[in-house]
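Q: I have 99 residues here and want to know how they pack in 3D. Can you give me a structure?
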Amino acid sequence: MKIKNLKMGQLYSKVRQIIYTLPYIIKKKKDHPNKTAKSIFKKMDKINESGSEEEKLVLKTAIEEAYLEKEIERMYIRIARASRDVAKQGDKLDKLVKR
């Protein structure tokens, strides 16, 4: 991904794209620790520029799947945090009732 000489709107779009693909990059790094993020980006760019429609679809699906997995993980973390906060408030209310 080239980001030099981009206008603000284009830069914003590229940054959003990088954020969206980041879970895929991390997943690929875990699967292949010797690969660099740069090489993964290059392979993605190559597929997007000159890959077959099937390769593009497979890549797009893998990126979306990794992103959604990360979002689900974040959702579970938020739910756990909210549950913990509710439990703390419940304990405080129990203490107040006992007074």
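Q: Anything worth noting?
A: The longest helix spans residues 53-98. The mean pLDDT is 90.
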